[in-house]
């Protein structure tokens, strides 16, 4: 389980109701859609089947949340903030 926290870039206050966009190299998520609660946080479970956990394999999860007033954002698997798991 991974917990994300979304804050307003101007005020640094938690953003309730923010939609978090996820992209992975393998696996699935639960729950979807991933929307922040009143504290600006949302938890998701990233599930990988054993075939995606081969020794030496790296799986990546990229994420973003559109800033206030915007309806989309761009995920990048090569982003330095992306989550990487090596098996």
Précis, in short:
The protein is mostly beta strands and 87 residues long.
Topology:
Blueprint: E1 2-5, E2 19-24, E3 28-30, E4 34-35, E5 41-47, E6 58-64, E7 83-86
Antiparallel strand pairs: 1-5, 2-4, 2-6, 3-5, 6-7
Give an overview in words.
Helix content is 0%, strand content 38%. The chain is mainly β and 87 residues long. It is elongated and about 45 Å long. The model has no long low-confidence stretch (mean pLDDT 95).
Number of strands: 7
Global geometry: elongated
Number of helices: 0
Rounded mean pLDDT score: 95
SSE run: EEEEEEE
Name the strands of the widest sheet in spatial order.
Answer: 4-2-6-7
List the uncertain runs.
Answer: none
What is the terminal-to-terminal distance? 17 Å
Please estimate the helix content: under 10%
Q: How is the main sheet built? A: 4 strands, antiparallel
What class would the helix/strand composition place it in?
Answer: mainly beta
Report the β-strand fraction as a percent range. Answer: 35-45%
Rg over alpha carbons: 14 Å
Summarize this structure as a short list of keywords or feature phrases.
mainly beta; 38% strand; 3-stranded antiparallel sheet; 87 residues; 7 strands; 4-stranded antiparallel sheet; elongated; single chain
């Amino acid at each position: 389980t991974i917990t994300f926290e979304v804050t307003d870039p101007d005020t640094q206050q938690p953003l309730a109701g923010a939609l978090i966009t996820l992209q992975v190299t393998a696996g699935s998520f639960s729950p979807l859609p991933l929307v922040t609660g009143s504290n600006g946080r949302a938890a998701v479970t990233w599930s990988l089947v054993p075939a995606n956990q081969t020794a030496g394999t790296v799986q990546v999860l990229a994420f973003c949340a559109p800033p206030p007033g915007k309806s989309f954002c761009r995920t990048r698997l090569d982003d330095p903030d992306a989550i990487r798991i090596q098996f």
